Amino acid sequence: MTSSSLALPVVDTALEQRLVARLARVEELLKAHCEARTPYVTRAAAHLMMAGGKRFRPLLVMLAAETGTHPDAPEVDTAACVVELTHVASLYHDDVMDEADLRRGADTANARWDNHVAILTGDFLFGRSSELTADLGPDAVRIQARTFNRLVEGQILETVEPGPDEDALQHYLEVVAGKTGSLIATSARYGAMFGGARPEVVEALSAYGEIVGMSFQLSDDILDIASASEESGKTPGTDLREGVPTLPVLMAQASTDPADARLLELLSQPLTDDALHAEALDLLRDHPAMDQARGYVLSEAARAKKLLEVLDPGPVRTALESFADAVATRSA
């Protein structure tokens, strides 16, 4: 692992070197944790883990641990493995739900084998994560159980429409908080906890992690509409075509302006037709909902940075502030 692969912007050379070295150590541990009693299960378990990924969650564990008195404690490494194993396990299940064929440039497990193998491999990795969590003690077990419940509930809520008396945007934000925010919050909490940070720092970093985790997903929503394919590396409007509700779409749908009648008509129907999809995409790009969505993400980043005032000024706080800014400006 090289410094260029760090998912967080770190400008302090000494801090960067420490994080790179620790992540390399965690990478070896993750490889070992994918090993099962049989080669077949080992291959399936290592399939997505070794396909790459930014390792943002274990990196956040390591960075949060720097706020404590013993950031290099063995428990920090274990916690970093716990969150990444949990994350990768959830990807196996996500790919089955989405009927996806590719993940991180490789065949998904369900495409390479079948849905049964993919689901059970995800379960295997969740089990391995639980084993490691048990080594961290009862508090960690309780935190992990709550995180897992929120993650699963978020995935379930994503599959159902909000009720007639529910606000669609709040429903969506709850989905994002569960699916994405919860595990990133736990990553920051674990790092601060096992690095020996003060209790008020642990709580502040947990709240920071949830906000930044949600903001990362919300900025993806904006990029899905705003970016050209050559900039983002993926086809613009993919969520729109698949009928997936996202932040700008939901904000646009809340409009009562008669001038938005055509856009609202398009958003109320499937957009599988190329011409209708392109028209909706153009209308959305020019709609005030885009700036409204950007403003929301920027305000969330500011809220996350405010929580970091509990930390003394220095390279760690700067890196965490920079990441919150980077998440926000991805959508600006």
TrEMBL record:
The keyword Repeat is annotated on this UniProt entry: no
Cofactor dependence: Mg(2+)
Coiled-coil stretches: none
InterPro entries per the UniProt record, alphabetical: Isoprenoid_synthase_dom_sf, Polyprenyl_synt, Polyprenyl_synt_CS
Pfam entry (one): polyprenyl_synt
Keyword terms of this UniProt record: Magnesium, Metal-binding, Transferase
UniProt record similarity statement: Belongs to the FPP/GGPP synthase family.
Name of the protein: Polyprenyl synthetase family protein
Organism for this UniProt entry: Nocardioides hwasunensis
